[in-house]
Specification:
The structure is a homodimer of 232-residue chains. Chain A is α/β, with parallel strands linked by helices. Chain A has one domain: HUPs (Rossmann fold). Helices cover 35% and strands 12% of the residues of chain A. The first copy, chain A, is built from 7 helices and 5 strands; from the N terminus they run E-H-E-H-E-H-E-H-H-E-H-H. Chain A has a 5-stranded parallel β-sheet, sandwiched between helices. In chain A, helix 6 crosses helix 7. The longest helix of chain A is centred in the middle third of the chain and has 16 residues. Chain A is globular and about 50 Å long. Chains A and B meet through strand 3, helix 3, helix 4 and helix 5 of A and strand 3, helix 3, helix 4 and helix 5 of B.
Amino acid sequence: MMSRGTDMSNVKKAVVLLSGGLDSATVLAMAQADGYQCHTLSFDYGQRHRAELDAAHRLALVACVAAHKTITLDLDGIGGSALTDTAIAVPEAPQQGIPVTYVPARNTVFLSLALGWAEVLEAGDIFIGVNAVDYSGYPDCRPAFIEAFERVANLATRAGVEGAGFQIRAPLQNSTKAQIIQAGLRLGVDYSLTVSCYQADVQGRACGRCDSCRLRASGFAAAGVEDPTRYT
Amino acid sequence: MMSRGTDMSNVKKAVVLLSGGLDSATVLAMAQADGYQCHTLSFDYGQRHRAELDAAHRLALVACVAAHKTITLDLDGIGGSALTDTAIAVPEAPQQGIPVTYVPARNTVFLSLALGWAEVLEAGDIFIGVNAVDYSGYPDCRPAFIEAFERVANLATRAGVEGAGFQIRAPLQNSTKAQIIQAGLRLGVDYSLTVSCYQADVQGRACGRCDSCRLRASGFAAAGVEDPTRYT
């Protein structure tokens, strides 16, 4: 039986990457249901859809996480994506191959910073909401990438070399969008708080036309539940 | 014979991590000698020894690089190292194991951001001055880490999946500090411009007592050349 005392030494800590979207909100609920004390991490990387940062903050508050941190990164100085470069339009029709909304090395950068924070917190688990079924087509969402990054994490760090090491957990890896939504609803996730749209307005209202909006809307339809998304 | 025209399509581009220290200055000279058009990258991560950022900028100017970028990161908000947390003293005697100057996940974060920039530049090579002979004892300087990161780079990116991919080059990997200095001097590196000290003053003058100063001084002694370091 779990102790209810004040001894914190057996607390399972995790860093959870929280974008403010549907997937990462679900992952946070799953990590909490698994008994993790969660520290959520968001990135202000010059993305168009900055409303997702407000959404992430609200989701963290509602979930009563141990800490929420937003790291500012000047990826916009690097460019190369429709999400960070206003000169590249967000496509509103399906694309072949890796889409222009792909942000170079984004999940590698995010996981690296999560790894640094996890090491300082003595958290052994890092959760990320990547998915390779109903997904974006981004290479850094695939299982082989997650496995390779876990190997890096355990070679790069003091905790990997001298301690218990790290696990990169991607619990949505093999789920459809509908399955993700159904799992989240069972855990009480309020999807009206989440923002998925690549060009959401400042109030977090969605365009309904971009790739991310399309994936989200068909997920709610396939799950057979009402879509709480606010559209412009 | 190499074309001397204005066709840039055959230019070999590289991103070079440039800390402003002795090792990365040598790596930059090696990459240029190998014919790479170099784009240098430094990080302002709240380090005590911020004089190294000025040193990096000067080295980049002197080497006439294609571009020099300094990315600001709030790693100081993550903490956990004597280099970023003023509450942890820089040790002035040799330490056992991984020293307190280890910055959690630093090289993973730096390589990730270098990877993002390399992908946008269409640069296939990333140079890093890590070394595992006369070295710091940091886990993220070892060959196994570099190899694991290269695997991540090629799984994470559009260029890795659809293009020619990336190589992470660590040309100092198996060199002693004396060999590094001798190689750099042959290539014309002006080591008086470099700053290695963990607690250098604002003018870049070294303490002469920290681990990094000790490694550097014994390198010049072993190389049998004059040490141009300015001490406080």
